[in-house]
Amino acid sequence: MNSIAPVHGIVRTDLNDLFSVTAPDASPMPQLAWKHLIGQQRARDVLGSAFAAGSLGHAYLLCGERGAGTFQAALELATALLCTNAEAAPCYQCEGCRKVLAQSHPDLHVIFPVALSAEHKGSDGKIDDEGWDHLTSLVRARLAGPYALDAYETVPQIPVDWVREVMHSIVRGATAGTHLVAIIDGVDMMSKDSANAMLKTLEEPPAGTIMLLLSERPHAVLPTIVSRCQVLRMGSLSPENIRDGLRTLRPDAPADAREHAVHYAMGSLGQAISLVDEPDTAAAEAGGRFLRLCVAGDWLQLAPFVDELAARQNFDLCVHMLVHMAFCIRNGLLTEVSASRKYIFGDALVLPATGGVDTARAERMLASCQSSVFAVRSYGSVPLILVNLALELTEILHEQ
What we know:
The protein is α/β, with parallel strands linked by helices. It is 51% helix and 7% strand. It has helices at 16-19, 41-53, 70-82, 95-101, 129-144, 160-172, 192-203, 223-226, 239-249, 255-264, 269-277, 281-296, 299-311, 315-333, 339-345, 359-377, 382-398, and strands spanning 31-32, 59-63, 88-89, 108-111, 180-184, 209-215, 230-233. The strands form 2 sheets. It has a 5-stranded parallel sheet with strand order 4-5-6-2-7, sandwiched between helices. It has a two-stranded parallel ribbon with strand order 1-3. Helix 16 (359-377) runs antiparallel to helix 17. The chain is globular and about 65 Å long. The chain starts with 15 loop residues before the first helix and ends with a helix.
């Protein structure tokens, strides 16, 4: 079964010789023509130079914010490696590129965290035919929208069956050319079994194989995986990068909706796309209510509201809510306190002597919201994260 369907920056350049890939009878590589990667000049330079010199490592760990371009960079590099154009790759016109665009290239394998239901597994707990079909549809959607963020109702994981299937394909070698590429997203979420299924192949892949591992939490990636890769860190995107990306990927969206998304994207084009596609009115309302209850110190209402949010098991809603809260604090409290801001915060952050904003408290609140965003994105316990945040904000707002 084919696994694709059965489809800022520091680089360890000193390991280039140790990890470099030499494809059988390899000819000089063309220039890598980045056509769809937004921003990320460091990644463009490092990967582009190695590609042109024919000195790409056999394994890279691309680290960066979800939706900021790690998957797009990996996909574009993979497409270039599978491209048959001798002058500029990827050309998006040759047979290899067309197969990638059609999500049908036999030498491109993609893995990422998924939330499989019971109907996708057999009685033995392994992925059944319906499950493989489901994975095929998810991979095709991911390749069609490299910046899009996956939405999960439960904590996702990388099935060990999927990893083993891809490793078997890698061992069998390329079928259509000299290169075989595996993109493995979310390696920080691999179980011990999934990691063990990958390690031997990661250490000694067949000639011409390049494995591109992605993570937004490099500190959580197993050291045995990191030690086998060259590490490339990719930064958050600038507001102008995100504007450019939205103009390209969502040209029909209203200009004000795109600008709203830029402000709340926190460096992630994927986050901005999500906000344009599905306006987060519910998240904004939830964030406003959460802050007002913290200002009031009303635990009789705050506790059941936290339970209500946790019961929805909607990680994206929770993240969007926290982002709205952080944005409100950052852009609202560090300027003059207007009547609209007093509606949420009252005089809790007004200095008695001057009537100005208590920026020290505002900064502490912002730090609490930002750390909570990171914790939720790391799939921590949502009830515990929200309770801790409520305690921290209430203490900051009400301390004498």
